[in-house]
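Anyone opening a protein record will find just a pair of labelled lines. The record below illustrates this layout.
***
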Amino acid sequence: MNRRRAIGRIILATLGGGLAFSGYEWYRYEGPPDYAFADRHDDLITALADAIIPHTADSPGALEAGVTPFILKMVRECMTRPTANNFIRGLKDIDDWCIQKYNNPFQHCRDNEKSAALAHFEEKDRLLKGIGGKIQRKLLGDPFFLSIKRCTAIAYCTSETGATKGLAYVLVPGSYHGCIPFSPGQKAWATF
């Protein structure tokens, strides 16, 4: 075999491998999300939401607010394909990580193990700073941890339990006052 032909084949093989990998990556982000996986693992979503907004002595948590159906609806109907794929892949990753590290799925871990898992995935899913982060979000979608935190907060604050018992709720707030001092121990306002 002559040298030119060998170099040409190496270049073609490298280009072919690069194209195949690019196609695989594109399919990972733009392919159809596995919504059935998310539906089957609603207990994992409930445990994640409860770890993000736990109940306290004076306010209910995400578990009591029943945020899981809302989160599943957000994933199915409101997220872009890359973000939904990141969310579902993140569910798989956090469960696998907990099984490898603690020999238990996330739902059955102790509170300190859940906190460690959340801290690990928050650090892992950090966006780049500046314009790189904007490009990353536009092309690859929102990372898993950002999506689960956002969906949990929205679901909690818009639920009846969260708005009336977790936040201060006034049915008719009246006129707008831009700067009102809080009294010690007062909850944040649910209406604005």
Q: What stands out?
A: The chain has a mean pLDDT of 83.
